[in-house]
Amino acid sequence: MGHGAFPGTGPHRKLAFIESMIEITRPFLVVMGIPAVGMGAVLAAGLLPAPPLLLLGIIAVMFGVSATHAFNDWVDRRRDKTVWENRPIPAGRMPAAFAPVFALIMLAGSLAITATAFGMTAFVVLLVAEVLAAFYCMVLRDAVGYLSLPPIIALFPVGGWAAISPETLFSSWMPWFLAGIVLTWQAAHIMVYMPAHPISIVNGKPRCEKKALFFYPTPKLAAILGAIFSTLLLSEVVFLGVVAELGAIYWILAVPLTALTLAASLRLLASSSDKGRAIVAFNAASMALAFICGGVCLDGMVASYVGTFFGWAVQAAKDASIWVESQAASLNTIAYWVVLVVAALVTIASVGKVMKELSQKEPDAAGQTAGD
Q1: pLDDT score at 329
Q2: Is 221 found in the same domain as 332?
Q3: Residue 201 φ then ψ, to 5°
Q4: Taking a C-beta distance cutoff of 8 angstroms, is the pair 148, 136 a contact?
């Protein structure tokens, strides 16, 4: 998840530039952003929009998260030569100057979709999140520390809520409680991963190489903070299930994975310098967010909106059927010409293959070409 690279360590020879455009967006992390925003949308007041509008929302989220990752890689282009040398820019699969342009194009697309499809409140939330994310990449991460990131990521469900019910964004506590869940998760996610990084010895004491919040924690302190945040996260997840009256789907998905995250963080606490335990805790926390947010989305959508989706799908199918019937003659003509062209191409290819075989000289019994 960190470097976003495809399996293998060698340079990509075929379609390298296209692959690097996908790779630099961190596809797995982009997918994780969708339910984080969707959690706010599903729990917002009012009905969900029609599926085409939801699709626009998913695209807007993917573009926005991808833009941040591409910009982050551009900021880290020199550091990555020694840290993540297989990322597209240090590996030479993408020109460094293209990354910020690519990021700006995706950001513009995300902002345009959000403004036109979901209104200015959601647009402002997205813009603030993107500006803060860029500032984090350039300044906050090194000057303040990695715990300056959670408040930025916490805006994800707030943006989802603002897209569906902007008028209740500041009159309801729910979107901000959802922000608290994501903030707590991100803090736990960061702290349990710190001991997996190289550990320095300063004044005779071990120290993580990354700042937490204006200070460099020891592996033990990082593990303690990870366990505290994981405990708080489990409490929040249970509280959300109760107050939002979420159903069995949520409880089956969200609670076990959050409890597993806590168990992994406590296991790390018992041996804070064990990099293997830190990576296990990090992976458990990574899955926990997807299961928490995904649990909210699935439970809410299945419980309240499946009928709406089926109704829309049936109506769309009826409309498509009417259109096909009205265009039957034109479609028949198009289909006839398509089949005709394909048949002609197959015939030409077959004749060519046979003529090529006929033109080849057969070897005689002695192994020499006949006529030589």
Answers
A1: 87
A2: no
A3: -110, 115
A4: yes
